[in-house]
Amino acid sequence: MEKSKRIVLGINEEIGADISYVRRKHGDQDAAYFTGIEIGIVFGGTVLANFLLGMLKGATEEVTTAGGKQLGKSLAKKLIEKLTPIANQAQFKEADTRQLAQLAASHEQELDSVCTTLIADLTKPEFDRLVDGQDALETAQIRDHLARNGFTTKKVEIYSERLVRRIRLELKSE
Amino acid sequence: MDRMPAGAPYILSEVRRLLRVLMGETPRAAEQNFVNLMEMSKVRLDQNLWAYEIMADGSATYIVFDHGTKYTTSIRPAQIPQERVIPIAASPAGDNLRNRLRARANALREVSTGIFEAAQIGATLDSVDFLYSEAAKGPHYRHIEAVKGIGEFLELNNEEAIRNWCTRCIDRLIESYGSYLLAGDEVIKPVATLLLFDFCPFPLSALLEMNRDYLRYGVGQTVMGVNVSMPFPVPDIKFYLEHPAVPANVAVVWGTAIAREFQNKAEVYRDHAKTRFTVEQFLAGLYLALVYYRCALYAFRAVLSLKKAKAVTSQTAKSRLDEAPTEADLCEEYRVVIAASLHAASEGSASRLVNMPSIANAIQFSSWVDWMASPTSQVNAEIEIRQAYDAQLVMPTFLRDLAIGRITCIKGEATKGLAKLQAVTRELEKHLREAVILGDPNYLSSTYDFMAKVGENHGMENAEYLRRAQPAYVQALLDLAPSSPEE
Known about the structure:
The complex is a heterodimer.
Chain A: H1 3-15, H2 20-26, E1 32-33, H3 38-61, H4 66-71, H5 73-87, H6 97-121, H7 124-132, H8 135-148, H9 153-172
Helix pairs in contact in A: 1-3, 1-9, 3-5, 3-6, 3-8, 5-6, 8-9
Chain B: H1 8-23, H2 27-41, E1 49-56, E2 59-66, E3 69-73, E4 85-88, H3 96-111, H4 113-118, H5 121-132, H6 142-146, H7 159-178, H8 184-198, H9 205-219, E5 222-223, E6 226-227, H10 237-241, H11 248-274, H12 279-304, H13 315-347, H14 362-373, H15 381-391, H16 397-410, H17 414-430, H18 432-437, H19 443-457, H20 463-469, H21 471-478
Parallel strand pairs in B: 1-4
Antiparallel strand pairs in B: 1-2, 2-3, 5-6
Helix pairs in contact in B: 1-3, 1-13, 3-5, 7-8, 8-12, 11-12, 11-13, 12-13, 14-16, 15-16, 16-17, 17-19, 19-20
């Protein structure tokens, strides 16, 4: 399985049916939603993009870190440009859920290419240090994203921590 | 090999699955849902955009199907043309589920009187019967009966005694609900009231005083010359939150605090249920999560309907009020999702709530997974499974992993799939005794059987899987006598 798909499914597993916070934020007024995993998969991709953005921003701002040194500012900038539209995705409501699935697939391609580039450019220990080294920015990025998409204060705290932990684990796994 | 769960434990698990449907809210509500679903199933539409319209008490609820998105709303969905809005006739609730419950309970008694009695099925049937009776239509106070013996409420004379009393009563009420002696509707308000006492931000004696006032001015201390006692506080959190002595900010923060506590408890039970290795424990956990979500929903709605809510000034109270509608909606969605999951476990695809068989039937469940993963299938099998697990809460983690392992094998990645299945079977072996006692379906043998076939098809060594698929292997694990009449 492609790396980003596995991570996105992991994010989806963490959030579970609480994805309804996102549904409610972007859905119809007075609607109580049931099933549908597509929105969860699209949202999972945006969470991963936000994590990677936080990680890359941190690495480029603090060039003293091992990850920052190795990565190079120009590459980081390119990757940030690729990730930004996914991270800022605000369209989670589609009349046709098949369109959400297509959107998720296109995000997956982009995210995979970012992950592949990072993995190819860094040694395993460097990559792991990069993933672990930007706790504050990674968490802040995800926290803002959750808050923007309808998660309540308490849930933002719970999930930002949980998601950062899960994404790190998945990114560092072989 | 699929015969392992036959006998009393298996019938008992069937009875419990039915009881969870009946007692989650009230048996009458369950019967009404059952009838509504039957009515809906008569109209089968394939369009991507349509809705059912269900009228109750003069107001309409719409169940909307919009290109893969499904939701309920009380607002007429403007995007749906009139000819695609299907009115569902309000048929009176019958007693289909009760009859089935009686039939299965009788079957259990015939197979094992011991298990019938140990599981208190007789008392449960009496309780269910009461809830169908005319007496149940009016006000009834079975929660008071349930906590009898714990102590007289108005005689409690210090903070600690009141708190202890509240804790013991909550435990007793939840236990009664968990044993299917009280229905969800009977415990929600009393339990919420008791937690409100526990979370009281000022001396509890003030709450006792509110109840004494109620007795004094609302009921009267004597009726026909007889002293009226008060064994239980007024079971309505709005009674306390709306009291003039409680400032608006306090009322909102206090009320939402208990709502959030209930929500936390529901989440703990929900998440714990998912990690269980038996279907019965998974469903029992969801059933408990359901009552806590309903308590949370009741508390959030009570706070949102407070007259004094408009007068809040503190930042905390304002922020709690801002978030309460979203949290209430989430609790409502979980209520529906869990109720549908419990119903689906009892009825399978006949419930018309999910497109899959009951997880309590290992053979049907496995066949469904195999069909989805087959080359002729049009569905994305893995996504279907993840949807069932993540969004619909209809299966525990072990079944998700088992299904994904099967799918991986069928899609040609035998080694990877078998590794996943081995991890699941290792855990199932550890929990085999619980599974047998609880009357769970035999996922262990059917999975080994599948693994043996995969091994054979891929030219891999499969003798060990074949051996483990035999009933003798399960017997040996359990260290059971070969023919126990009870099992």
